[in-house]
C-alpha cells in the first residue's frame, strides 16, 4: 500500500491542534502541502506522495518564459516582428531582359541582382523599374539568361558609374503584425460543509496560520493544469464555426496551433543524428538562436538516448566520443539529455503531459498528439507601441495580476450562502505572445501533417 499523508498529521510540521474562532479559512491563507514544504520545510518534500503522482503537468511555460509574466489591458494584444533583412525571390521568369516576379521585388536602378537556375549563376544590373513585380536588368555575362524560372537575390549589392546620380529612393522593411486574444478560464469546486470541516491548520515560521485541505489542493492543481493546457493548446474558433456563430467565446491562439501555422512542423520521432542536423540547419536558416529546449514524450526521450548510445558504440564504424567518467559509488547514467551538433545545442526534457494516460497519453492521442515541442531559448526584439523591446520568445500575459489566479470562497470559507455547502470559484484571464514562431518546432508522433 502506498504511503498516504493525512491532513490530520503532518510529521515534522507545527500542526495547530485546537484552532479557535479566530482561525478563518480565506484565499490568502490557503496553502498546499507541497507549497508549504517548498517554502518552509524542504526536507519533507520526499514524504509527500500521491499514488499516481501529484498530477501536475505544469512547468513548461515557466521554463520557457523564465518565470516572467506581464499584464495587458485590452481584449486583443498586438506586436510587430521584422522579417528578413535581405530579399530573395523564387519562380522569377525572364523574357527580353524583363524579369517578372511572383511578389514585390523592392529593387531600384543600379541594384545588382544574383541569379541561379540551380546549375549556373548570373549577375544582372537593374536599369528600369517597370512595376512593383517587374523590372528590366542587363546581363553582365555573355552567357544568355536561362529560359526556365530562376531564383534571384534582390539585395545582392549595387553599382554606379563615377559622377552618377546614385539611388533615387530608399528601401523599407515592413514588419509583420501579429495578434492574440484574451481567454477567460473559469472553474468551480463545491463541497458539503461537513466535509469542508476536514481542515488542517499549520503555523509558519513567524506564527502565521495557514490551512490545508487535500481535495481543495487537488482541485487547485487540476485548475493550474487546465490553464497551462489552454495557453498551449487552445484552437481559436474559426469565424464561421458552429461555436462562433452561436456566440461562444473563441479564446486565444494557443502556442502549439500558433507555431503550427507560422513555425516549423515535423512528423514522427527524432531518431538519428541526421535528423538533429536537419533541425540545426533549419535553426540557422530561420534565426540567430543556437540553443533549444525540447520537451518530449517518453518514446522521443528513449529515441534520443538510443541514438546517442549508438554514436558512442564500439561496433565497426561506430563513433566513439570518450569514456564514461564513473566511480564505484555512482550508478551509470544512461540517459542523454543534451546534444551539441553542427553548432547548435539541443536540450531534451520529459514532458509529463504527453505521457499522462488521462491526457495526451490516452489511447488514440498517444499516436496523434505531440512527440516533442522545440522552443528557442533567450530573448528577441519586437516593436511594441512604437518601441523596440527585448522579450522572451514565448511570453504569458495576464489581464491584470489580480486575474492571474483569482480565487473567491463562499460558505465556511468566506461569504455565507444558502444551503449546507461551501464552494470556491477560480478564474484566470490570460493570453500568450509567441515571437519568432519560425524558430519553434512542433513534432507529431505519426504522419499528422500531410
Automatic annotation (TrEMBL):
Name this protein carries in UniProt: Uncharacterized protein
Biological source species: Myroides marinus
Amino acid at each position: 500500500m502506498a504511503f498516504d499523508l493525512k491532513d490530520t498529521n503532518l510529521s515534522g510540521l507545527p500542526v495547530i491542534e485546537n484552532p479557535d474562532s479566530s482561525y478563518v479559512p480565506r484565499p490568502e491563507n490557503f496553502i498546499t502541502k507541497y507549497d508549504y514544504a517548498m517554502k518552509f520545510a524542504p526536507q519533507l518534500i520526499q514524504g509527500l506522495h500521491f499514488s499516481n503522482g501529484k498530477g501536475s503537468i505544469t512547468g513548461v511555460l515557466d521554463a520557457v518564459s523564465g518565470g516572467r509574466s506581464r499584464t495587458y489591458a485590452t481584449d486583443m494584444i498586438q506586436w510587430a516582428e521584422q522579417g528578413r533583412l535581405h530579399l530573395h525571390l523564387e519562380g522569377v521568369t525572364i523574357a527580353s531582359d524583363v524579369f517578372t516576379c511572383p511578389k514585390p521585388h523592392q529593387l531600384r536602378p543600379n541594384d545588382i541582382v544574383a541569379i541561379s537556375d540551380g546549375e549556373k549563376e548570373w549577375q544582372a544590373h537593374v536599369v528600369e523599374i517597370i512595376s512593383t513585380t517587374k523590372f528590366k536588368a542587363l546581363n553582365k555575362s555573355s552567357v544568355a539568361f536561362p529560359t526556365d524560372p530562376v531564383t534571384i537575390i534582390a539585395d545582392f549589392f549595387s553599382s554606379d558609374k563615377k559622377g552618377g546620380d546614385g539611388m533615387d529612393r530608399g528601401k523599407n522593411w515592413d514588419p509583420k503584425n501579429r495578434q492574440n486574444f484574451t481567454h477567460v478560464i473559469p472553474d468551480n469546486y463545491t463541497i458539503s460543509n461537513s466535509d469542508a470541516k476536514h481542515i488542517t491548520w499549520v503555523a509558519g515560521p513567524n506564527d502565521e496560520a495557514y490551512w490545508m485541505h487535500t481535495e481543495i489542493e487537488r482541485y487547485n492543481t487540476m485548475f493550474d493544469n487546465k490553464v497551462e493546457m489552454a495557453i498551449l493548446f487552445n484552437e481559436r474558433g474559426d469565424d464561421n464555426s458552429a461555436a462562433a456563430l452561436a456566440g461562444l467565446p473563441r479564446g486565444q491562439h494557443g502556442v502549439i496551433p500558433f507555431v503550427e501555422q507560422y513555425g516549423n512542423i515535423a512528423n514522427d520521432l527524432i531518431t538519428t543524428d541526421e535528423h538533429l542536423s536537419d533541425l540545426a540547419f533549419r535553426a540557422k536558416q530561420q534565426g540567430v538562436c543556437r540553443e533549444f529546449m525540447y520537451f518530449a514524450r517518453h518514446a522521443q526521450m528513449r529515441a534520443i538516448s538510443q541514438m546517442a548510445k549508438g554514436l558512442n558504440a564500439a561496433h565497426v564504424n561506430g563513433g566513439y566520443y570518450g569514456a564514461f567518467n564513473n566511480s564505484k559509488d555512482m550508478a551509470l547514467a544512461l540517459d542523454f539529455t543534451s546534444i551539441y551538433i553542427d553548432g547548435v545545442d539541443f536540450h531534451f526534457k520529459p514532458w509529463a503531459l504527453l505521457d499522462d494516460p488521462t491526457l495526451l497519453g490516452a489511447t488514440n492521442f498517444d499516436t496523434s498528439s505531440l512527440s516533442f515541442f522545440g522552443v528557442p531559448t533567450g530573448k528577441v526584439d519586437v516593436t511594441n507601441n512604437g518601441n523596440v523591446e527585448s522579450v522572451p520568445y514565448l511570453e504569458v500575459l495576464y489581464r491584470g495580476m489580480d486575474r492571474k489566479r483569482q480565487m473567491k470562497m463562499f460558505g465556511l470559507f468566506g461569504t455565507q450562502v444558502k444551503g449546507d455547502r461551501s464552494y470556491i470559484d477560480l478564474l484566470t484571464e490570460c493570453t500568450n505572445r509567441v515571437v519568432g514562431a519560425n524558430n519553434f518546432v512542433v513534432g507529431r508522433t505519426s504522419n499528422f501533417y500531410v
